[in-house]
Amino acid sequence: MEYMSTRGNYKQVNSAEAISLGMVPEGGLFVPAEIPKLNLEEITVRKNESYQKLAAWIFKKYLTDFSEDEIESAVKAAYNDQSFPEAEKTPLVKLDQNTYILELWHGPTAAFKDMALQILPHLLAESAKKLQIGNEIVILVATSGDTGKAALEGFKDVEGVKIIVFYPEAGVSRVQEDQMKTTGGKNTEVVSLKGNFDDCQNAVKEIFADKELKQRLQENNYQFSSANSINWGRLLPQIVYYFKAYLKLLQDKEIEAGEKINFTVPTGNFGNILAGYYAYRMGLPVNKFICASNDNKVLTDFLETGIYDINRDFKKTISPSMDILISSNLERFLFEMNGHDSGKINEWYQKLQTNKKFKIDGQTFTKIREMFSGKFSSEDEARKAIKKTYQNYNYLIDPHTAVGVDSLFKYRSESGDESKAVVDSTANPYKFSRAVLESLKDKEIKKDEYRIIEELEEMTAAKIHRGLAGLENMESKHQESCGQDGVKEKLEELLNL
């Protein structure tokens, strides 16, 4: 298995090199040159397998330069009972006859990012060993909230690695910020940036493309990699839980073998839903993907018009992990959908840079519309979905999952498609306790966020996630900050360049 650049500007590489580089040095993202194909029997025969066995099986299809022992060792280290104490690593909860919630937040930081970021450090360390990389690897992360803590938790105290996380100063919840700032580890740095997530992400991308800085890093025995979903090693592990969800429905006799189902995915950066698309391309029986957005509905508009336009106001919402206008993984998706035409990708992304928008060709757009539907939820609609889900099903959801639930019911109402559907639940409700409690009580609550957590527990009896328990009293270990134009200088300072 080899990996190619979406922009046709780099040689094909093996998985170890794709993972260690993070993104294509000249710009662009690595994608598999060929997607492994599975028949239905190969998939369904695994319906009783553990998450770990399923993960190892899928990884072996893509990491062909890794030995079986190396893959199984990484899987065992990542998905152990300490990091994921539930017997089912990704429990599936039935809401009604056709609707299921896939809980992806049972890892150490209460967010779905743990599913990938608990194993990425092991894949990266093994990749560095294979490539005989002697430099210390510097992991740069831009986060809209959850990726930061999940990456810090995964990489802290990993030998030969330093991790630096940038997050928007006023763009994350207090719990998210506290989770990041209280992280220990001798190799971790956390920096707040005066701007939004797109500012963080753009700054990190510019640093990756800065050849002069890369040269100075090399001279100081450093090299960059990424833990964002631009790194194939971050996207690959997310494919697994789509197979697991389908097989669990099969195991529970909720569906027949080969029956097509729908997936609804709340997404901002398009990585989570793209992983589902790769699962479909491998052979998973999927009828439709519903891409669920919040008020920053750039993806909804794109899926309806074929025009990707970021000329719009950026809105801060109660689902901050989706407050994104530039969806990095859309580039991979378009490359897959246009038949690996890197010329078109270069043309479109040049237009995005100069005009802040581009329009795809009709053939690609038609192909996308066959499999994808874009829906969005206003903040008010997301709040109503939180309350309605609790009232109707006695089940608590966070604001991101609420966007997914609301979008699914909109899709059903408009399309008449009542296929069984799985909604990705991307965060534990206690991570966004203020929005959840205010939604349940239909009023603004002025209390401190930790008092809100206490009230929410008292009101619902829902268990507080272990990753949030006691967080209020933990010592803050990181106080760094910078402006939008000061990211490079801050990096140089932290690395003593």
From TrEMBL:
GO terms for molecular function: pyridoxal phosphate binding; threonine synthase activity. Residues 88-423 form the Tryptophan synthase beta chain-like PALP domain. Its EC number is 4.2.3.1. InterPro entries: Ser/Thr_deHydtase_PyrdxlP-BS (IPR000634), Thr_synth_N (IPR029144), Thr_synth_N_sf (IPR037158), Thr_synthase-like (IPR004450), TrpB-like_PALP (IPR001926), TrpB-like_PALP_sf (IPR036052). Keywords: Amino-acid biosynthesis, Pyridoxal phosphate, Threonine biosynthesis. Residues 2-79 form the Threonine synthase N-terminal domain. GO terms for cellular component: cytoplasm. Its cofactor is pyridoxal 5'-phosphate. GO terms for biological process: threonine biosynthetic process. Pfam families: PALP, Thr_synth_N. The modification N6-(pyridoxal phosphate)lysine is found at K113. Pathway: Amino-acid biosynthesis; L-threonine biosynthesis; L-threonine from L-aspartate: step 5/5. It catalyses: O-phospho-L-homoserine + H2O = L-threonine + phosphate. Gene3D superfamilies: 3.40.50.1100, Threonine synthase, N-terminal domain. Catalyzes the gamma-elimination of phosphate from L-phosphohomoserine and the beta-addition of water to produce L-threonine. Belongs to the threonine synthase family. NCBIfam families: thrC (TIGR00260). This is Threonine synthase. The lineage of its organism: Bacteria, Bacillati, Bacillota, Clostridia, Halanaerobiales.
